[in-house]
Design goal:
heterodimer, B: alpha+beta, Double Stranded RNA Binding Domain, 7-stranded antiparallel β-sheet, 12 helices, 29% helix
């Protein structure tokens, strides 16, 4: 079962990789007919943007050819009805389908690992990263289902997946062992699942945040390298809103994860808060994300600034996951790495 | 500090007032005005944001530098490795970051700013809760959502009832219904921020009235300890606590069970103890990691465990003494290092005088599982499968009489360096039951080991306050983030002349205003409009 889990991981990585390549293909070749199609179908584009982002999303016909052609084929109608967009849409759908398959295999990796270990597969850093990325993957697919116009972000999501899973498999991998006594508590399930869910969401939230910065720069007329990507990502407003909603959703979960950790720490170590490196960085992340939410609510703070704050928060999360586990000695030394 | 709102919201807050540049030309700044301006600055959102980030940044050094409260040994290690840097960092509070004045300054300023911001908002919110929804704007068609119901009977009470059923705050005025919903957002927002103050108060309570002590407890009735400050190897009492406040009880470790995997990874721990509360009968109890021993006024937590070799030394005069000394584990397989001291041996029975240069000590390593081949350097498993004790013998002046506090886990190397303490012979590996005869005919017998645990006894009266505040914080956070404020108005307008001759029908104009970022408002608005239309099934005409 353990070996099966390890093999499935390779399959999952390959699945995401293939999805990424196809997304990239769509990205590169689907563009050819873009300008013409948009020019001939401006109303449809508008309607789709409006539908996607409901009230208030300023339909951004402002950027010529701005909205991805993706919208054309993915709003539920069979591609055959719109032959012009069908080929690109089909490619995009294949990529999404592959992502779904990869996510299913990803789930199987976790399930088989859990069965082999006879416990929740959250006992060390390898398993934790697998779980957090799986959550990110599922949330991404959920978002995609509700808002097909963001499909072009799939390239970056799958890229992140491939990188994180490869790091997990190559660097963080440890054989299955039962939990250490300190982890043997029902708080393990509560605390770790909340933390993994929140980190998954917050990491996913960084994707539209980066896209927003690119798109924003593009809208301001920047045409140097990263900004050129802005031509094919959703409207800045949509991205910004998506970033906020992901963060607003994740923040209470993160808060709960930290609190559950504190309750557990009281039982395990005798104090609810002790400035262990993990705790310190969880606190730093919490404060930074609280800052993001406040900054967004303050009209005088410009939107790119708030987005940068969210990205700083993401960096602190990475620091907590990788930096603290690898470089610091602390009570949370469960990574299983030497 | 307001909760996340959409920027389109025109809610006047203290924050915005303070952020607005270009106040009227100043008069001569009086101290009062200066004070008021500083207060405004402090309670402004910009300042709060900056303080938040300072707080985040200030917390970082605490994870980079060793902290006294977390691990005092690491601090000492840092002092040895960086003798030049240490005093500077120490003066800056680098090893007590979370107790340092600058860290306190940041969070106290932040909380002052927070209180200064939420108190006026609390007042405004109470006022808003008691106020009725405001009158409709003159032109409802300028609002983000707008619809016109034609052929309505003009009876607004049904509409008002429908809105009340949907838990809107409704007021019926002359020819119009004004309704508002979503005050819970601000309620949650204020609750969230007040809970933060509660958390801080709980922490302060714990710092003032809490205490803790750490010690090592070897199994056996002769090693039992009682809960007094003197019996802890390390303890910290809150400012408002003294020795007498500690609950009195005694604790004896009767047994300690640990199970391990073949790899040596621990699987489970359980410490069995005999608790004797002051003036009451003793009773057995057990505790473990994740399952502390909760006593009246104190909790006992299991931190670690190890082995204490039992050694019997028989001196030149045939008198023997037994030492039970815990050896501290240095790795996961419980390779342990320590020392046993026999300062009061070789006393001449005739004169009763002690020769300070005939004191004896042993120092070395204990291996619960000694490797079968190769040199005994480290244990290969944490269970006692093949116990071995490697010791070096020392004779001379142990330096214990100088009154300088020294380690009980190592001999004083200064005494060795200055020649007052000399090693006797080579080291020797002893198995349980084996004895070792030194060059002067004295013998050391390795009787076996006892188990020991390290534990912390702790009491923190702030915990319930922090927990309750944290729970409220989470409760407040949800509506603060997810509830949306919005308003709708229904107004009867005279039907256009000639449109209706029955006299029973008139036009009802509806306007909706989301006051926070609310992508789903259009749907909710449409539902309301549909619900208002239902009684007389009529056609609705919608714009926008």
């Amino acid at each position: 079962m353990a070996a099966l889990s390890d093999q499935l991981l390779v399959v999952a990585i390959l699945g995401y990789l293939l999805a990424m390549i196809i997304h990239a293909a769509e990205y590169a070749f689907g563009n050819r007919g873009l300008v013409g199609r948009v020019a001939t179908r401006p109303e449809r584009e508008l309607a789709l943007v409006g539908a996607g982002a409901a009230a208030g999303a300023t339909p951004d016909a402002a950027g010529p050819g701005a909205e991805p052609p993706a919208g054309g084929g993915v709003d539920g109608a069979p591609p055959a009805r719109r032959p012009a967009a069908s080929k690109t849409a089909l490619v995009g759908r294949v990529a999404v389908a592959l992502t779904v398959i990869a996510a299913a295999v990803h789930l199987a990796v976790l399930v088989t690992r859990g069965i082999a270990a006879e416990r929740m597969p959250w006992g060390n850093m390898y398993e934790y990263v697998l779980t957090a990325t799986f959550i990110g993957s599922v949330v991404w697919l959920g978002l995609l289902h509700r808002r097909p116009s963001i499909r072009h972000l799939g390239l970056f999501v799958t890229l992140t997946m491939v990188i994180l899973l490869a790091v997990a498999g190559l660097v963080l991998y440890v054989p299955i062992v039962p939990l250490m006594p300190a982890l043997n508590s029902y708080w393990f399930i509560v605390h770790v699942s909340a933390a993994a869910l929140a980190s998954g969401l917050l990491q996913l939230g960084a994707v539209p945040a980066v896209m927003y910065l690119i798109r924003h720069g593009y809208d301001q007329g920047k045409r140097s390298f990263p900004y050129t990507l802005g031509a094919r990502v959703p409207a800045a407003d949509t991205l910004e809103r998506l970033t906020f909603r992901l963060h607003a959703f994740a923040f209470p979960i993160w808060t709960f994860a930290v609190m559950a950790g504190a309750v557990w720490a009281e039982a395990a170590w005798g104090r609810y808060w002790g400035w262990d490196p993990k705790e310190t960085w969880a606190f730093v992340s919490w404060v930074v994300y609280a800052g993001y939410l406040h900054a967004r609510a303050t009209p005088s703070v410009r939107r790119p600034v708030t987005i940068w704050i969210a990205l700083v928060g993401c960096l602190t999360m990475q620091m907590n996951l990788y930096g603290v586990n690898i470089f610091f000695e602390g009570l949370h030394s469960y990574a299983g790495l030497d | 500090m307001p909760a996340p709102n959409e920027q389109t919201v025109a809610e006047p807050t203290v924050v915005e007032a303070a952020d607005t540049p270009g106040r009227p030309p100043r008069r001569t700044p009086s101290p009062l005005a200066l004070l008021r301006n500083s207060w405004r600055q402090l309670t402004s959102m910009r300042t709060a944001l900056i303080l938040l980030f300072l707080l985040a940044v200030a917390a970082v050094p605490g994870s980079l530098l060793p902290q006294r409260d977390v691990n005092i040994d690491d601090v000492d290690g840092f002092r040895r490795e960086h003798p030049d840097l240490f005093p500077i960092l120490d003066r800056l509070g680098g090893f007590d970051v979370y107790a340092s004045p600058w860290f306190a300054a940041i969070y106290l300023l932040l909380f002052t700013s927070l209180v200064g911001c939420i108190v006026p908002r609390l007042r405004d919110h109470v006022r808003a809760l008691r106020a009725v929804p405001p009158a409709a704007p003159r032109r409802l068609d300028r609002l983000p959502r707008h619809a016109v119901l034609s052929g309505h009977d003009g009876d607004l009470t049904a509409i008002a009832a429908m809105l009340r059923r949907r838990r809107w705050r409704v007021v019926v005025r002359d020819g119009e219904v004004a309704a508002e919903k979503g005050h819970l957002k601000e309620t949650g927002n204020l609750l969230f921020h007040l809970s933060l103050v509660g958390v801080l108060l709980g922490v302060a309570l714990g710092a003032s009235y809490g205490w803790h002590g750490n010690r090592l407890l070897i199994a056996g009735p002769d090693q039992a300890f009682c809960n007094t400050v003197q019996q802890f190897s390390e303890s910290k009492l809150g400012q408002r606590v003294d020795d007498g406040d500690l609950p009195r009880f005694c604790l004896e470790l009767t047994d300690f069970e640990a199970t391990f995997l073949p790899s040596g990874q621990p699987e489970s721990f359980r410490a069995r103890v005999r608790v004797e509360p002051w003036g009451r009968a003793a009773y057995p109890a057990s505790f473990s990691v994740n399952d502390p021993l909760r006593l009246d006024g104190a909790n006992v937590y299991l931190l670690g465990h190890g082995y204490a070799p039992v050694l019997r030394y028989t001196d030149r005069h045939g008198r023997s003494q037994v030492s039970v000394q815990a050896f501290l584990s240095v790795d996961g397989n419980l390779t342990s290092e320590g020392a046993a001291f026999f300062p009061d041996v070789n006393i001449d029975p005739a004169t009763g005088s002690r020769d300070p240069n005939l004191q004896v000590a042993f120092e070395g390593l204990y291996f619960p599982t000694t490797p079968e081949d190769g040199p005994a350097i480290r244990s290969v498993h944490p269970e006692e499968r093949a116990p071995g004790l490697f010791l070096r013998a020392y004779r001379g002046n142990l330096g214990l009489d100088a009154g300088i506090p020294g380690s009980v886990y190592a001999i004083d190397q200064r005494q060795v360096a200055n020649g007052r303490l000399k090693q006797v012979g080579d080291g020797k590996l002893l198995r349980p039951g084996e004895s070792w005869t030194l060059d002067d005919g004295t013998t050391l017998e390795f009787l076996g080991t006892r188990k020991y645990i390290t534990l912390t006894v702790r009491h923190d009266p702030g915990e319930p306050v922090v927990l309750a505040s944290a729970a409220l914080l989470l409760v407040g956070l949800m509506p603060a983030l997810f509830v949306r404020r919005r308003r709708v108005w229904f107004r009867v307008v005279p039907a256009p002349a000639g449109a209706s001759t029955t006299g029973r029908s008139s036009l009802v104009e509806v306007g909706g205003l989301p006051r926070t970022d609310y992508p789903g408002f259009a749907e909710e608005f449409d539902q309301l409009v549909a619900a208002a239309t239902v009684p007389p099934v009529l056609r609705k005409e919608e714009t926008n």
